[in-house]
Design goal:
The chain is mainly alpha-helical and about 130 residues long. It is built from 6 helices and no strands. Helix content is about 85%, strand content about 0%.
């Protein structure tokens, strides 16, 4: 069942980022934050990144250098973020690095800024409650 949830979340995120990501905000950094909290197994995080990379880059660009670089960056960010914990700055680093890469290939600085603002708002509204249960 968790594989199905990851598949659906990756498809929804890739579809949103494909059509509206460069205009409003990128949803993949936000969805990957939530899956990193709820699905503790590493295979679900990697599967989410792999499915998103295949769907997003095959419909938007091509499965070439940028898709491989994005997937490698995603794996490295997951590993670095696992050592940093779930503090505010590590959450911004995790989502900011993904949003920066996506905004770099789409030439959209507004999406990067709006994603960071949205992650900050979500952190103080509900991510902090989920991480620390306060």
């Amino acid at each position: 069942m968790k594989y199905f949830i990851v598949l659906v979340m990756a498809i929804i995120s890739a579809s949103w980022d494909r059509w509206m990501g460069e205009f409003l905000f990128f949803s993949f950094p936000i969805i990957s934050l939530y899956t990193s909290k709820f699905l503790d197994n590493q295979i679900y995080k990697v599967l989410l990144g792999l499915i998103f990379t295949i769907i997003y880059f095959s419909t938007r660009f091509s499965l070439g250098f940028f898709s491989i670089a994005f997937f490698i960056c995603y794996i490295l960010i997951i590993e670095i973020a696992s050592f940093l914990g779930t503090k505010y700055l590590s959450t911004l680093f995790f989502s900011g690095a993904l949003a920066l890469f996506l905004s770099f290939i789409n030439y959209s600085l507004f999406s990067f800024v709006s994603t960071i603002i949205l992650v900050s708002i979500l952190y103080f509204i509900n991510l902090r409650l989920m991480f620390y249960e306060k």
